[in-house]
Amino acid sequence: MKPSKIILFILLSGAALSFLYPFYWMILASLTPEAQIGELGIVPKELTFSNYTQMFSKIPIWRSLLNSTIVASLSTLGVLVFGSMTGYALAKLRFKGREVLFFTIIFTMTLPFQISLIPNYILMVKFQWVDTMAALIVPALNNAFAILMFRQTFKSIPDDLIDAARVDGCGELRIIYQILWPNIIPTIITVAIITFMSSWNDVLWPLIVIREEHLMTMPQLVTLFAVGGRAEPQLGVKLASAVLLALPIIVAYAIFQKHFIRSMASSGLKG
Amino acid sequence: MSAPRKKRNPLRRTVLPYFVVSPYLIHLLLFVLFPVVFSIVLTFHKWNIISPMEYVGVDNFLRLFQDRLFWKAILNTLLFLVVHIPLQIVVALTLAYFLTQKLFIRGFFRASFFLPVVISGVVVTILWQQLYGMESGVINRVLTSLGLGRVEWLTNWRIAMISIAIMATWKNVGLYVILFLVGLQTVPISYYEAADVEGATAWQKFRYITLPAINPTIFMVVILSTIGGFSLFIEPYIMTGGGPLNSTLSAMLYIYKQAFEYYHMGYSATLGLFFALLIMLVVVVQKFTIESDD
């Protein structure tokens, strides 16, 4: 290796360490007795699981894991099903108002969410959806970004395929899900990863519409375990809940790393 | 699109597209258009949700312009952006440039830079709150072991927002590394080879070949991190609660507090509307500035 490459390698290793070590420290600290966290370095002196057992007894973390899984899965399913319907209509069907609808969707993407946050909360109050899963799921079932992704992909599919299916007597919905979906797997994966991740990591909206502990999503429960009146005083116990929140994503990322990077980069490129 | 051979009921054919887009139309009406209209209605009212709405004319706007804390929150958010965006571009571009070189375990480096991007901001904030600790925080322990002094990362009002901006950069930079990497790979290697023949310096190559090629990427990074930065909420909410001395009170955190701690729905909607218009204005100005730079 050339000397310049060795220097580069050392610099990159230092950078990688600065991104990885904090997570290593957090996992280790969550397994360390409270008194020893302060001088924790690289190798632990003593490991304990008591932070986790205490955390399990204090907050319904498994329930929140289940809630988050339900909310993120149903939101993702909705975005895939409805997003491909709208994207298909914009790409392949002719109807009055199609262009208007298309530009409306583009326009809604430029609207900052700050404008609709309070009115949407009031809507949830009026629907009596506060403290129900509906408040977390129903507004998330459609997504402008996903519609545009589907529209773009469907445009590249030849009309012949759709016409042939129609001749065979397929309805439009069967065309979308049975004929077209198998041809657009990469788009489905991208939309699914982005939607699932943003739902899983969202915390502002749950903080607003959910007050009951057993309905809280995981990031929300962990947040309220970290700050405010119900905050946990013991650092190790608090960190244990953060580790558990990060773990499902770390595992998924370790397995599907390339898909995560590709999907999120393409969302940035198109957004 | 050619017409299908087997024609069905013509009425069905005209109605069908509207049926296909109906889930989105309902969503659009309920969760996008209604809120926008209703937020304008709200700005002229005082309302705590429980008692009836009370018409107050332009009082909310007058109050907004005199609300020192709101302007402080806007300035705090801008300070965050001013630190965060340049830092993000420099770090992302540097790391992306390193990654264009053919290196052993390059994929591992890329994956490790990207890890914080996929992890919840809640986890990252709880973690960094500890790293920033005054006595036993990892960062101050490293600084003291190097013979440097401790830094009051979160307790000094002059530093706290900068600390949050550094953390946000650490969290997001991996995404921008990937975007810059894509941008850098669009530059043909022959350009650099030609520049080498002409005897160009590294800086000249960067300024006249690389920079013009990645200008669209820089624009995208600026816009994305501006929009993201204006939404700054959970980081100060968890880390500092807006303190010390309101120095990390972001605009979004202030709007949240007005709505859900004091139940000033009308006023909070006014702040939200004003803030949204400000965001759109900033993004448009950025767009024109960067495009006229070309």
SSE inventory with pairings:
The complex is a heterodimer of chains A (271) and B (294).
Chain A: H1 3-30, H2 50-58, H3 61-92, H4 98-110, H5 117-126, H6 133-137, H7 144-155, H8 159-167, H9 172-180, H10 185-201, H11 204-209, H12 218-226, H13 235-270
Chain B: H1 10-42, E1 45-46, E2 54-55, H2 59-66, H3 68-100, H4 106-118, H5 121-131, H6 138-145, H7 160-184, H8 189-197, H9 202-230, H10 234-239, H11 251-260, H12 265-293
Antiparallel strand pairs in B: 1-2
Helix pairs in contact in B: 2-12, 3-7, 3-9, 3-11, 4-7, 7-9, 9-12, 11-12
What can you tell me about this protein's structure?
Chain A has helices at residues 3-30, 50-58, 61-92, 98-110, 117-126, 133-137, 144-155, 159-167, 172-180, 185-201, 204-209, 218-226, 235-270. Chain A has 271 residues and is mainly alpha-helical. Chain A folds into two domains: 1-48, no CATH class; 59-270, MetI-like fold (Orthogonal Bundle). In chain B, 73% of the residues lie in helices and 1% in strands. Mean pLDDT of chain B is 90; it is low at 1-6. Chain B has a two-stranded antiparallel sheet. The interface between A and B is large, with 89 and 88 residues.
Please name the two chains that share the biggest interface, counting residues whose Cβ lies under 8 Å from a Cβ on the partner chain: A-B, 89 and 88 residues
Count of the separate structural domains of chain B: 1
CATH class of chain B: Mainly Alpha
Approximately how much helix is present in the residues of chain A?
A: over 70%
Give the second-level CATH assignment, the architecture of chain B. Answer: Orthogonal Bundle
- The percentage of residues in β strands of chain A lies in under 5%
**Unreliable runs of chain A:** none
Percent range of helical residues of chain B: over 70%
Structural class of chain B: mainly alpha
Along the chain, the helix and strand elements of chain B come as HEEHHHHHHHHHHH
